[in-house]
Amino acid sequence: MSTAKRPPRVVAELGRPETAQETADRLATNSRNYRSRKTVNNLVLSLLATLGAVFVLVLLVPRSDGPVDRTVDFAAVASQVQVGIDAPLVVPELPDGWRANAAQWRLGGTDKIPSWYIGLLTPRNEFIGLTQAIGANPTWIGQQLKDAPAVQTLTLVGVTWDVYRNPAAEKDRGNFEYALVTTAGTSSYLLVGTADEDEFAALATAIASQISANGQAVTQ
C-alpha cells in the first residue's frame, strides 16, 4: 500500500505553504496566547471565589439594628463579676435619663491593676466612664488621667474627690475633659468624661453611700 506524502498546507494569509520556522513561530504564539487566556480566566475565577467567600462571611456575621448607645444592664453584669472578688463593686442607682452602654471587669495589663468599668451616657448625651480600680497606685491613676494635676478638691455627701481638668488642646482631649477621683479602702474610683460638672456631681452623689460603705467595710 502506497503512502503518499501530504503536501504542505497553504496558509491563506501567506498564499503559500509555511516554512518550518513559521510553523514553529505560529505554534509558540498560539501556546503563549492559550496560557495568557488561562491565567486571566484563573484570576477571574479566583476573584469570584473570594467575593463569594466574603459575601458568605457577611451573611454569617451577626448584626444588630440597635443604636450604638444601646442600654447595658450593668447591675446584672456586676452580680456575675462580683463572685470571687472581695471588694464590693459599685453599682450606681442612676438618675432619670441616664443609661449605660458598657460594663466589664478588666483584668489589667502589665500593671496588673484589675478594675470594674461602666460606660455611662448622661441626659445631655455626654459621656462619663466610671472605673473602680482595686489596689491602684498613684502611677496607675496618673496614667489614666494623662498625668494631669489635681486642681482642687470637692466634697459631695461626705466623700472628698480630687478634681482634674485636661490641660491639653480641645482637639487632643478625647473622652477626658474633666475627672473626679477618690479612694476608699482598697478601691480607687475614677469618674472621667466629657459631661458637665453638674452631671459629674450627680453621679458622684449617686455612688457616695456605696463608696463610704466600701471604705468602712475594709477598715472594720
How does the SSE layout of this entry go?
Elements: E1 10-11, E2 16-17, H1 20-60, H2 74-81, E3 99-106, E4 115-121, E5 127-134, H3 138-144, E6 150-156, E7 159-165, E8 178-184, E9 187-193, H4 197-219
Antiparallel strand pairs: 1-2, 3-4, 4-5, 5-9, 6-7, 7-8, 8-9
Q: Largest sheet at a glance?
A: 7 strands, antiparallel
| Share in β-strands | 25-35%
Task: Give the mean pLDDT.
Answer: 82
SS element count, helices: 4
Q: How many β-strands, per DSSP?
A: 9
Low-confidence stretches: 53-68
SS content category: alpha+beta
Distance between the termini: 121 Å
- Output the radius of gyration: 36 Å
Strand order in space, largest sheet = 3-4-5-9-8-7-6
Could you estimate the helical fraction of the residues in percent? Answer: 25-40%
Could you give the order of the helices and strands? EEHHEEEHEEEEH
Shape: elongated
Short description:
It is built from four helices and nine strands, in the order E-E-H-H-E-E-E-H-E-E-E-E-H.
Describe this structure in words.
- This protein has four helices and nine strands.
- It is of the alpha+beta class and 220 residues long.
- The strands form two sheets. A seven-stranded antiparallel beta sheet has the order 3-4-5-9-8-7-6. A two-stranded antiparallel sheet has the order 1-2.
- Strand 8 and strand 9 form a beta hairpin.
- The longest helix is centred in the first third of the chain and has 41 residues, at 20-60.
- The model is unreliable at 53-68 (pLDDT under 50).
